[in-house]
What does this fold into?
Amino acid sequence: MIIQKKPDYLIFADSAKKGENMEFPDVSRGWGVTVDQTASKPPMEWMNGAFNRIDKNMLYLLQQGVPEWSEQVTYPANAIIKYNGILYTAIVENDNARPSTNTTKWKKTQEEIPNASITTKGLVKLNSETNSDSETEAATPKAVKTVFDLTNNIHNRINDITDRFEPDVNASRIHLHNNKYHFFLTNEGLAGVYDEEEQVTKWVFNENGVLNEGFVPASRILDLDKFVRGSIPVGIPLPWPQSTPPAGWFECNGSSFDVNRFPELAKAYPWGSLPDLRGEFIRGWDNGRGVDLWRGILSWQNCEIQQHNHTQNIGEYNEKGGGNPWASGNSNLFEHDYWFTTGLAGGNETRPRNVAFMYIVKAE
It folds into this structure.
């Protein structure tokens, strides 16, 4: 069945005039020939036409449910019509008053439901997320169940911890599942682990993070190497027991370096080269003390032996049969003690006993 278009309002009516058999001005005029020309008995085809128009109007109302507004109709108060898909109710009797713009003559039959907010009732969208910050959406049963399961799991864990938690006046303890160890925290800030089978404390840290008791291998301390490297200022020469420097370090061999690439190292050696410490001893800078005068920082100093004599008593030398090389017949020389210097002794330098290390500096 096709969609019935809105019929016009021209049909039989008792107020029709003679001769109005071709055009029908309105509902109240209708077919004027009915009374004057047929003695109130219209022909059958006229009746068929009239009922056909009635059937079309009824079909139109059935399909629409509510009649559409028409500018040709006068509407009484409380009449309900449809305009652009929206139902309107007449406030007062009116004609040719468009419902969408005449708010004093028409009102929406059902006000639009607004979106809900924390202050306004209305429509709301469902949401299954459990981490949403929305204040205009409602949680679904699925979201509620997810949160419930999570809360229940946390609750069970808290109960488990509570069952194993043992408070005391001086300390609190948490016992592990295997009952072999328990963790304790004292009022003095000591924290540690106690072995209940061996009845010994495995380790204890104080409130400052210092290990008071026990042993923790260096391999178990996170980023220990970074801490050690970070605690040594860049540029300090350190002895290294290998022939190759470790990564991030340079040998102190007098070589140059890029001051832009290694700005921290350049703070110690702004001229861009390292001291050559190969085969050298490091001596403390005098800095005004007066022991090693006129020295600049990082200045090189050659080896030296403090001035001294190796002497021998000539009298003792002569008594041992050595004779006096300076006597030359002068017997008076034997009446006094004379001294003479021996020959050269030793190697090509003066040094203490030592072990050879490679001096290195941290590059950055």
